[in-house]
Design a protein that fits this description.
By secondary structure, the protein is of the alpha/beta class. It folds into three domains: 216 residues, Rossmann fold, CATH 3.40.50.980; 151 residues, 3-Layer(aba) Sandwich (Rossmann fold); 130 residues, ANL, C-terminal domain (GMP Synthetase, Chain A, domain 3), CATH 3.30.300. Helix content is 36%, strand content 22%. InterPro entries: AMP-bd_C_sf, AMP-binding_CS, AMP-dep_synth/lig_dom, ANL_N_sf. GO terms for molecular function: ATP binding; long-chain fatty acid-CoA ligase activity. This is AMP-binding acetyl-CoA synthetase.
């Protein structure tokens, strides 16, 4: 066991074999950036590890990070591991209540505070007396600063070894279904999954692997596929985004060869293209030989994705039509499937095995099956150790023969491709007495260019309904009578089209247009932009009776 090469050992190897290779590029504002080589990164991490060791924390103590993605997040994680401790990352958009819950539930011994947009609102969530260290890009605080500690501390010598069964990290779920759960991951599981991910990226990308890290590192998707796989490979170049306003410039700087995102952002990129060129005109141009290729290339260059060889979508279902649209531009967009509990290592699309509407085939070492009830069950090398302080959940989440119960419903095709058909807990019964699976219907609705997001609901009602958020470009004009008429006409057509393709008991009575977009700030989206279905349904409850009493097919909330 002691001779097992673990994720931290790979990092030591990169420090020794390619000390001068640039690994991270951090924007500093005003078009300035800082590049960090492996040697520079490890020098800072080793110094912080010395500091952490000197605090007298018990081995395996939980050290928390509250920060947007940045170079010092990665430095801090390596320091935590070298000092013999366990990382707890908190989503940078969490409320003070959730920050406090995670810090107290994990029994964090110290908190690193980094880049944040809402620190003033989050501050009350930090328990009094908890030691804190501020990253260089953190808001102004009274805490010790990273740089002051680094400047006065000697780097840790040698190569601290961790054991396979040691806890590397506690990953708190984003809370789409309730209170966040602390998922425990060992160094062994993190290493095995990250090795598989790194191998898959190398197999699909020729030449340099350049990545833009902007999805929260507190989420398993970004942590596994960007950060931890880079620890294994060592030859990635990771760029960070400075802010939402500079995102396009950050993307242009990175010119990524692999780009991983979530469905909502892929949709927003498409809507941004449509804002510059109407869909019908673009469709016509793409259909012209030779000129179509030039137009497609220009669109991808404008998005900063002309160098992308592998484009991935995860975290939530993506409409199949959206994948087809990107592929028509020449972008190899494909879908994967993973979860916090398996270190985002279960299914992935490949050049040989992919199809719109499917999430790929099992990754090496993964076993999967469909239970008699239709549930997807997985046995992955990246499987969790268990839920922190919740042993009762451990018994519930595994079958007797060790498969993880995902709670998702799906079908495995004869070619091995997995199609997700819904989530067991999201299914609901209408008054017709049959279950409705909302996800497939939502995917049909979300494919429409006028729609940004939707949910399908209607528990106990005569029929289901859809609540939609208008595309961003339409919202400023939604009070214009002509625009409203156009939207109502188009959504009436969409309603009829959707109803023609689903079973009679799944047909929608109406489409309701939401008053305002769903966001992280108003509590309708998780930090990874998943819809908080229960929250939206609760907010809509006072209006339900009026909606069902109205005979219109399309109405405004």
């Amino acid at each position: 066991m002691a001779d097992t090469k673990l994720i931290l050992d790979y990092v030591y190897g990169h420090e020794a074999s390619m000390p001068d290779r640039v690994y991270l590029t951090q924007p500093l504002g005003n078009d300035q950036v800082a590049n960090y080589t492996w040697a520079q990164l490890m020098d800072q991490s080793r110094r912080m590890a010395t500091h952490l060791q000197g605090q007298g924390f018990a081995p395996g103590s939980k050290i928390a990070i509250l920060s947007k993605n940045c170079a010092h997040f990665i430095m801090a994680e390596l320091a935590i591991w070298m000092a013999g401790h366990t990382t707890v990352a908190i989503f940078p958009t969490e409320t003070a209540d959730t920050v406090r819950y995670v810090l107290e539930h994990s029994e964090a011994s110290l908190l690193f505070v980094g880049k944040l947009d809402t620190w003033a609102q989050q501050t009350p969530g930090v328990p009094a007396g908890l030691p804190c260290v501020a990253f260089p890009l953190a808001p102004k605080t009274s805490f010790q600063t990273w740089d002051s500690i680094i400047n006065r501390t000697e780097p840790m010598a040698g190569q601290t070894r961790r054991q396979p069964d040691d806890l590397a990290m506690l990953m708190y779920t984003s809370g789409s279904t309730g209170t966040p759960k602390g998922v425990m991951h060992s160094f062994d599981a993190a290493t095995k999954a990250s090795m598989g991910i790194a191998a898959e990226l190398r197999r699909q990308i020729q030449g340099d692997v350049r990545l833009l890290s902007y999805l929260p590192l507190a989420h398993i998707f970004e942590r596994a596929w960007i950060e931890c796989s880079s620890y294994i490979d060592g030859k990635y170049h990771i760029y960070f985004a400075e802010s939402l306003d500079t995102f396009l410039a950050d993307l242009q700087r990175a010119r990524p060869t692999a780009f991983i995102s979530v469905p909502r952002l892929w949709l927003k990129f498409q809507q941004g293209v449509f804002a510059k060129m109407p869909p019908k005109k673009l469709d016509m141009l793409l259909g012209i030989p030779f000129l179509g290729r030039i137009v497609a290339r220009k669109v991808l260059t404008g998005l900063g994705m002309d160098q992308v060889q592998l484009a991935g979508s995860g975290s939530a279902p993506i409409p199949a039509d959206l994948i087809v649209w990107y592929k028509r531009l020449g972008l190899n967009l494909s879908e994967g499937y993973g979860m916090t509990e398996d270190f985002a290592y279960s299914f992935n699309s490949t050049a040989e095995k992919s199809a719109p509407g499917c999430v790929g085939v099992t990754m090496p070492g993964v076993q999967a099956r469909i239970s008699p009830e239709g549930e997807i069950q997985i046995k992955s090398p990246g499987k969790l150790v268990g839920y922190y302080k919740q042993p009762e959940l451990d018994a519930e989440c595994f079958t007797e023969d060790g498969f993880f119960r995902t709670g998702d419903l799906g079908e495995i095709r004869s070619d091995g491709l997995l199609k997700i058909t819904g989530r067991a807990k999201e299914q609901f019964k209408t008054a017709k007495g049959k279950y409705v699976a909302p996800a497939p219907i939502e995917n049909r609705i979300n494919a429409h260019p006028m729609v940004e997001q939707s949910i399908v609901s209607g528990v106990g009602q005569s029929a289901a309904y859809a609540l939609v958020v208008l595309a961003e470009g339409l919202r400023p004009r939604q009070d214009d009578a002509a625009v409203r008429k156009e939207v109502e006409t188009e959504f009436t057509r969409l309603l009829d089209e959707v109803n023609a393709k689903v079973a009679d008991y799944e047909q929608l009575k109406m489409i309701v247009i939401a008053r305002e977009p769903w966001s992280i700030e108003n509590g309708c989206l998780t930090p990874t932009m998943k819809i908080k279905r229960a929250r939206i349904e609760t907010m809509s409850a006072p209006q339900i009776e009026a909606w069902y009493g109205n005979q219109k097919k399309v109405m405004w909330a």
